[in-house]
Amino acid sequence: MEASVSKIRIVVADDHPVIRRGVCGILSEKEYFEVVAEASNALEVLAAVKEHKPDLLLLDVTMPDRTGLEVLKDLKILYPRLKVLILSIHPEDRYALRALKAGAAGYLTKDSAPEELVGAIERVLKGGRYVSQSIAEKLTDVAQGNLEGIALHELLSDREFEVLRLLGEGKSVSQIADELALSVKTVSTYRARICEKLRLESTADLIRYAVEYKIVD
What we know:
Blueprint: E1 8-13, H1 17-28, E2 33-39, H2 42-52, E3 56-59, H3 68-78, E4 83-88, H4 92-102, E5 106-109, H5 114-125, H6 133-143, H7 158-168, H8 173-180, H9 184-198, H10 203-212
Parallel strand pairs: 1-2, 1-3, 3-4, 4-5
Helix pairs in contact: 4-6, 7-9, 7-10, 8-9
Protein backbone atom coordinates (compact mmCIF):
# COMPACT_ATOMS: atom_id res chain seq x y z
CA MET A 1 0.00 0.00 0.00
CA GLU A 2 1.45 3.37 -1.03
CA ALA A 3 2.00 6.01 1.62
CA SER A 4 -0.24 9.02 1.22
CA VAL A 5 1.44 12.17 -0.03
CA SER A 6 1.35 15.09 2.38
CA LYS A 7 -0.21 17.94 0.46
CA ILE A 8 0.92 21.55 0.48
CA ARG A 9 -1.95 23.67 1.77
CA ILE A 10 -2.45 26.94 -0.11
CA VAL A 11 -4.75 29.94 0.27
CA VAL A 12 -5.35 31.98 -2.90
CA ALA A 13 -6.18 35.65 -2.30
CA ASP A 14 -7.25 37.89 -5.18
CA ASP A 15 -10.23 40.19 -5.61
CA HIS A 16 -10.91 38.92 -9.15
CA PRO A 17 -12.81 35.59 -9.31
CA VAL A 18 -11.46 34.85 -12.80
CA ILE A 19 -7.87 35.15 -11.56
CA ARG A 20 -8.57 32.94 -8.54
CA ARG A 21 -10.17 30.30 -10.75
CA GLY A 22 -7.23 30.36 -13.15
CA VAL A 23 -4.67 30.04 -10.36
CA CYS A 24 -6.63 27.26 -8.67
CA GLY A 25 -6.80 25.44 -12.01
CA ILE A 26 -3.02 25.61 -12.40
CA LEU A 27 -2.44 24.38 -8.85
CA SER A 28 -4.95 21.53 -9.23
CA GLU A 29 -2.72 20.00 -11.91
CA LYS A 30 -0.20 19.16 -9.20
CA GLU A 31 -1.43 16.42 -6.89
CA TYR A 32 0.73 17.69 -4.03
CA PHE A 33 -0.96 21.13 -4.00
CA GLU A 34 -4.28 21.65 -2.22
CA VAL A 35 -6.14 24.97 -2.29
CA VAL A 36 -7.81 25.01 1.10
CA ALA A 37 -9.47 28.43 0.75
CA GLU A 38 -9.95 31.43 -1.50
CA ALA A 39 -10.23 35.06 -0.39
CA SER A 40 -11.34 38.22 -2.16
CA ASN A 41 -10.53 40.87 0.46
CA ALA A 42 -8.35 41.49 3.50
CA LEU A 43 -10.85 40.25 6.08
CA GLU A 44 -11.32 36.99 4.18
CA VAL A 45 -7.54 36.55 3.91
CA LEU A 46 -7.04 36.93 7.65
CA ALA A 47 -9.96 34.59 8.41
CA ALA A 48 -8.77 31.94 5.91
CA VAL A 49 -5.23 31.91 7.27
CA LYS A 50 -6.49 31.71 10.84
CA GLU A 51 -8.85 28.83 10.06
CA HIS A 52 -6.76 26.75 7.67
CA LYS A 53 -3.18 27.52 8.74
CA PRO A 54 -1.81 27.08 5.20
CA ASP A 55 1.76 26.37 4.18
CA LEU A 56 1.62 29.17 1.62
CA LEU A 57 -0.47 32.23 0.84
CA LEU A 58 -0.70 33.56 -2.71
CA LEU A 59 -1.53 37.22 -2.17
CA ASP A 60 -2.48 40.02 -4.54
CA VAL A 61 -1.12 43.52 -3.87
CA THR A 62 -4.39 45.28 -4.73
CA MET A 63 -7.34 44.47 -2.49
CA PRO A 64 -10.64 46.36 -2.20
CA ASP A 65 -10.49 47.19 1.52
CA ARG A 66 -6.77 47.24 2.40
CA THR A 67 -3.60 46.88 0.39
CA GLY A 68 -2.00 43.47 0.20
CA LEU A 69 1.13 44.92 1.78
CA GLU A 70 -0.82 46.02 4.86
CA VAL A 71 -2.33 42.56 5.15
CA LEU A 72 1.10 41.01 4.68
CA LYS A 73 2.56 42.97 7.59
CA ASP A 74 -0.29 41.89 9.88
CA LEU A 75 0.11 38.27 8.85
CA LYS A 76 3.86 38.24 9.44
CA ILE A 77 3.26 39.45 13.00
CA LEU A 78 0.58 36.85 13.65
CA TYR A 79 2.15 33.99 11.66
CA PRO A 80 5.87 34.75 11.21
CA ARG A 81 6.58 31.35 9.62
CA LEU A 82 3.87 31.68 6.96
CA LYS A 83 5.28 31.71 3.43
CA VAL A 84 3.75 34.48 1.31
CA LEU A 85 4.19 34.78 -2.45
CA ILE A 86 2.90 37.98 -4.02
CA LEU A 87 1.08 37.50 -7.33
CA SER A 88 0.42 40.91 -8.84
CA ILE A 89 -0.65 42.65 -12.02
CA HIS A 90 1.85 45.41 -11.24
CA PRO A 91 5.39 45.22 -12.67
CA GLU A 92 8.11 44.02 -10.35
CA ASP A 93 9.90 47.34 -10.10
CA ARG A 94 6.76 48.97 -8.65
CA TYR A 95 6.08 46.78 -5.61
CA ALA A 96 8.57 43.91 -5.34
CA LEU A 97 11.16 45.61 -3.14
CA ARG A 98 8.43 46.97 -0.87
CA ALA A 99 6.78 43.53 -0.63
CA LEU A 100 10.03 41.76 0.25
CA LYS A 101 10.82 44.32 2.93
CA ALA A 102 7.36 43.66 4.39
CA GLY A 103 8.07 39.93 4.66
CA ALA A 104 7.06 38.34 1.35
CA ALA A 105 9.18 35.42 0.17
CA GLY A 106 8.72 36.21 -3.49
CA TYR A 107 7.06 38.38 -6.11
CA LEU A 108 5.55 37.19 -9.36
CA THR A 109 3.53 39.04 -11.99
CA LYS A 110 0.25 37.69 -13.35
CA ASP A 111 1.59 37.49 -16.87
CA SER A 112 4.04 34.78 -15.79
CA ALA A 113 3.75 31.31 -17.29
CA PRO A 114 1.97 28.62 -15.22
CA GLU A 115 5.26 26.71 -14.96
CA GLU A 116 6.90 29.76 -13.43
CA LEU A 117 4.16 30.05 -10.82
CA VAL A 118 4.64 26.41 -9.81
CA GLY A 119 8.41 26.85 -9.73
CA ALA A 120 8.12 29.98 -7.59
CA ILE A 121 5.88 28.20 -5.08
CA GLU A 122 8.26 25.25 -4.84
CA ARG A 123 11.27 27.51 -4.35
CA VAL A 124 9.58 29.57 -1.65
CA LEU A 125 8.44 26.45 0.21
CA LYS A 126 12.04 25.23 0.29
CA GLY A 127 13.04 28.39 2.11
CA GLY A 128 14.25 30.38 -0.89
CA ARG A 129 13.19 33.68 -2.38
CA TYR A 130 11.67 34.17 -5.78
CA VAL A 131 12.60 37.52 -7.26
CA SER A 132 14.75 38.91 -10.03
CA GLN A 133 18.46 39.47 -9.47
CA SER A 134 18.11 43.25 -9.74
CA ILE A 135 15.48 43.40 -6.98
CA ALA A 136 17.52 41.03 -4.80
CA GLU A 137 20.52 43.34 -5.13
CA LYS A 138 18.43 46.38 -4.22
CA LEU A 139 17.11 44.59 -1.15
CA THR A 140 20.67 43.80 -0.04
CA ASP A 141 21.70 47.43 -0.57
CA VAL A 142 18.82 48.71 1.54
CA ALA A 143 19.58 46.21 4.32
CA GLN A 144 23.21 47.35 4.35
CA GLY A 145 22.26 51.03 4.36
CA ASN A 146 23.64 51.58 0.87
CA LEU A 147 20.98 53.79 -0.73
CA GLU A 148 22.97 54.81 -3.78
CA GLY A 149 20.94 53.99 -6.87
CA ILE A 150 17.74 53.45 -4.84
CA ALA A 151 14.86 55.60 -6.09
CA LEU A 152 13.65 58.11 -3.53
CA HIS A 153 10.10 56.71 -3.56
CA GLU A 154 11.43 53.39 -2.24
CA LEU A 155 12.09 55.22 1.03
CA LEU A 156 8.43 56.20 1.45
CA SER A 157 6.26 54.33 3.92
CA ASP A 158 3.67 52.01 2.40
CA ARG A 159 0.90 54.50 3.17
CA GLU A 160 2.87 57.39 1.67
CA PHE A 161 3.52 55.30 -1.43
CA GLU A 162 -0.18 54.54 -1.75
CA VAL A 163 -1.05 58.23 -1.48
CA LEU A 164 1.57 59.04 -4.11
CA ARG A 165 0.11 56.40 -6.43
CA LEU A 166 -3.39 57.80 -6.04
CA LEU A 167 -2.18 61.37 -6.57
CA GLY A 168 -0.45 60.12 -9.69
CA GLU A 169 -3.80 58.82 -10.93
CA GLY A 170 -5.10 62.39 -10.72
CA LYS A 171 -7.25 61.90 -7.62
CA SER A 172 -7.86 64.81 -5.29
CA VAL A 173 -6.98 64.86 -1.60
CA SER A 174 -10.65 64.44 -0.67
CA GLN A 175 -11.08 61.49 -3.05
CA ILE A 176 -8.00 59.82 -1.60
CA ALA A 177 -9.28 60.46 1.93
CA ASP A 178 -12.55 58.69 1.06
CA GLU A 179 -10.79 55.77 -0.62
CA LEU A 180 -8.34 55.18 2.23
CA ALA A 181 -10.81 56.00 5.01
CA LEU A 182 -8.62 58.85 6.26
CA SER A 183 -9.31 62.50 7.03
CA VAL A 184 -8.52 65.16 4.46
CA LYS A 185 -6.06 66.66 6.96
CA THR A 186 -4.21 63.36 7.29
CA VAL A 187 -3.92 62.92 3.53
CA SER A 188 -2.68 66.50 3.21
CA THR A 189 -0.02 65.71 5.82
CA TYR A 190 1.03 62.64 3.86
CA ARG A 191 1.24 64.73 0.69
CA ALA A 192 3.51 67.25 2.44
CA ARG A 193 5.77 64.46 3.74
CA ILE A 194 5.98 62.91 0.28
CA CYS A 195 6.97 66.22 -1.26
CA GLU A 196 9.68 66.61 1.35
CA LYS A 197 11.07 63.11 0.89
CA LEU A 198 11.00 63.32 -2.90
CA ARG A 199 12.37 66.88 -2.85
CA LEU A 200 9.40 68.19 -4.80
CA GLU A 201 7.19 71.23 -4.29
CA SER A 202 3.70 70.65 -5.63
CA THR A 203 1.03 68.09 -6.46
CA ALA A 204 1.80 68.63 -10.14
CA ASP A 205 5.42 67.66 -9.41
CA LEU A 206 4.22 64.52 -7.64
CA ILE A 207 2.03 63.54 -10.58
CA ARG A 208 4.93 63.98 -12.99
CA TYR A 209 7.17 61.91 -10.71
CA ALA A 210 4.59 59.12 -10.46
CA VAL A 211 4.28 58.96 -14.23
CA GLU A 212 8.03 59.13 -14.83
CA TYR A 213 8.77 56.28 -12.43
CA LYS A 214 5.80 54.21 -13.63
CA ILE A 215 4.13 54.25 -10.23
CA VAL A 216 0.86 54.59 -12.11
CA ASP A 217 -0.22 52.63 -15.18
